[in-house]
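Dear support,

Our group has been running a series of protein-ligand predictions, and this particular one with coproporphyrinogen I is the one our PI (initials K.S.) wants archived with full inputs and outputs. We had some confusion internally about which version of the output was final, so please treat the block below as the authoritative record. The input we submitted was:
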Amino acid sequence: MRRSLRDAGNAAGLSDALWGSPFLTVCRGEAAARPPVWLMRQAGRYMAHYRGFRASHGFIELCRDPAAAAEVTLYARQWLGVDAAIIFSDILLILQTLGLPLRYSTGDGPQFDRAVQSAAEVDALGDPEQASADLAPVYEACRLTVAGLPADIPLIGFCGAPFTLAAYAIEGGGSKQYARTRQFMYREPAAWHRLCARLVQALAGSLARQVAAGCSAVQIFDSWAGHLSAEDYAEFAAPHLRALAATVPAGIPVILFGHGTAHLVDQIAGCGADVVGFDQFTPLRPTWDRLGGPAAISVQGNLDPCLLLAGTPRERLRAGVDRLRAAGGFGPGHIVNLGHGIMKESDPELARHLVELVHG
Ligand code: 1CP
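Confirmed final output from the archive:
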């Protein structure tokens, strides 16, 4: 539940414009002048502007070029007219600075040339403090982005959750079933917990530096948490997520998001979320009521990302928005978003129309 965000007041020393912004107001569970909306992965391959950058920059190169990363972030924010920016970066960069060689090949998604397969390989990972410091270009991109944003638009910093990053490290890339990850958890529980503890140290350093560089909220993506049972999540994942969330400076809202997590959402919320992200399979009103409603926690989500795929009639999109409103959205404590990241086949005009519908 909300980590005493209200008691903390403006402990982060935000400007009046930021403090009163629709996005941060709703993170605190209060009513805003307009319902805030942003889209997970809002700067990405569905946008021609982004594809233009990618024609001349490798993906990691782009993430490590502060001026280019800031421009991609700012362009997507402004073009869509959304109420928050999220820094252009990736959750996997920290695994690279911890010592796992990372490649992004078009089509196959991210891949590590070496995966973590034994306790010895866990212990051979790099120093977490150094791994976080080595993402200096990301923090510089945050500074440049904040300088370019309107005064009332917050910048969201982010990282992956310990479970999701440990799963990438063990699988060596994405996976359908995360079987190797669970095998490792069951076979080597002590090494698993050491891996997650090291990730927490590196990620805490990264979030603190993003906040120091001007981010006024953070989101932790536990994208693949849905592959664990509730019991396994409680034993292997939640303690590390809770430890990480607790390190975020006072007064900075923490958004915790997972996908395929209707069975885990109570636990995720309980890990210290000020805002919990619902995927599109999580029924908004009954789940939020169970968590205590807007007084206890804010909610972000949860339109189906497929509504934005090319060819969806505008009436269908409007019906989706109306349905979200009827399900209890748009009021105090609700941030409009998709239930998962925007897909690369999305129609940018539909994405922009969604923002108009929410604001209109
Ligand atoms: O080819 C390209 O140009 C790279 C595509 C791309 C982009 C645009 C990747 C590779 N990452 C990103 C940026 C990114 N990733 C952002 C910032 C952009 C924004 O939101 O505006 C963010 C917040 C992420 C976070 C991220 N990366 C997540 C969590 C979000 C989610 O969708 O669940 C995950 C799982 C990743 C890993 C990753 N990086 C890239 C891809 C294609 C993936 C997913 C791979 C897989 O399915 O396993």
